[in-house]
Every structure is written in C-alpha cells, then in structure tokens.
Design goal:
The protein has five helices and nine strands. It has helices at residues 16-28, 49-75, 80-106, 147-153, 177-190; strands at residues 2-5, 40-43, 109-113, 116-124, 127-134, 138-144, 155-162, 168-175, 197-200. It starts with a strand and ends with a strand.
Length: 201
C-alpha cells in the first residue's frame, strides 16, 4: 500500500478524489457516522490464524470426546447407541462453540479515518463495546509481536493510547502488524497539519 500526504487544504471541502473516498466510506461502513470531511484511511485487518485457532480448539475438543467415548465403550459396559447419542450431542455443542467464536472474532473492527479512531470490540454474541476518539487525542502508538507463533505467522497487536493513558485502544490478531501500524501511525503523526491524507493501493 502506498500513501502520501496531500498538500495543506485551507478549505473545509474535500477534493473530488477525497470526496469519492468519503462517499465510499459512508456506503461501506453504515454503522459509523462520518463527518462531511471524513473518510476511512485504513480498516485494520485481522489474521485468519485467529479463526484457525478457534476451530482447532473446537475440533480438538470433539476429538477428545470421541476418543473418551470409544474408550468407555471398549472397557466398560456402556450401550454403544447411548454413547453415540452423547457424542453427537457434545459434537453439536463443539460446533456451536466454534461457530460462536467465529462470529465474535469476525465482528471486531478497528478503523482509522483521517479524523479519528473507531473500534468495535465484540465481547460475546450479545455484548460489544464501541469506542471512538479524535486522532489529535492519541499520544502513543505501538505494535507488538510476542512469541515464535506470532512471528512465524506474522500477526500481532496494535495499541493506541490517549494523553495520560486515559484510554487505550487495543486490537489483537492483526495481520502484518508492522505494515498496518505504519499507516495508522502516519495518520497520527501528521494530523496536526490539518491536511487530509491521500493514499492509493
């Protein structure tokens, strides 16, 4: 992704190019109320490995249940049909758990516009936390990759903090964290210049 600063713009109107970005942002993100001069610079993407881990746990849980059931049938006087029905029931629970984790994971978003940070953190299927902060309130930006797994699969965590650490915005399982962090950090660094940010893929 290439991006570059635009020339300072003294008016409150966007250039035609940036107006297209604003219109696209309004259309693609109906849950966000954009100002007349606001548009999405980057929608921080999460790694697919988060989903892989969720389904790996669900499949491993089912495998343990199936092995335990097979052992019980072979060494104990247990009706195979009853044990089969128990395994099916528990298998459905494992599938439901995996699907729930998948849904919750995909519902998390972290968006950087030319004016603010917007995040939606889905806690459960029925609970989430939405936050937004003006970019000029952001004081510290960082990203981390901890452990060989995160380094190997190139994902990590982006963290943005407001002045005095009053609020901290954390987004985990970020794909290519260094690359995406550079874009977000660039926005924070130049926002005081009061000039819109232009970028192109």
């Amino acid at each position: 992704m290439d991006f570059m600063d635009s020339e300072p713009n003294s008016s409150d109107k966007l250039t035609p190019e940036l107006q297209v970005k604003h219109d696209d942002s309004v259309r693609l993100y109906p849950e966000i109320q954009f100002s007349d001069t606001e548009y999405v610079v980057i929608d921080i993407q999460r790694t697919i490995w988060g989903l892989v881990m969720i389904w790996a746990v669900a499949i491993a849980s089912f495998a343990v249940i199936a092995l335990f059931a097979a052992a019980m049938v072979s060494i104990a006087d247990v009706d195979p049909f009853i044990m089969f029905m128990i395994v099916v029931g528990l298998g459905i629970l494992c599938l439901a758990g995996g699907a729930t984790g998948h849904y919750v994971f995909r519902r998390n978003i972290f968006i950087v516009t030319n004016e603010r940070i917007f995040s939606r953190i889905q806690l459960t299927p029925f609970s989430y936390r939405a936050q937004n902060v003006e970019i000029d309130h952001i004081e510290d930006c960082s990203f981390t990759q901890n452990g060989i797994v995160q380094m190997l699969f190139n994902y990590g965590t982006i963290r943005l903090s407001t002045v005095g650490d009053e609020h901290t915005y954390v987004f985990t399982f970020v794909a290519r964290p260094e690359e995406q962090f550079k874009v977000a950090n660039h926005v924070v660094q130049i926002v005081d210049e009061k000039s819109p940010i232009k970028y192109r893929h």
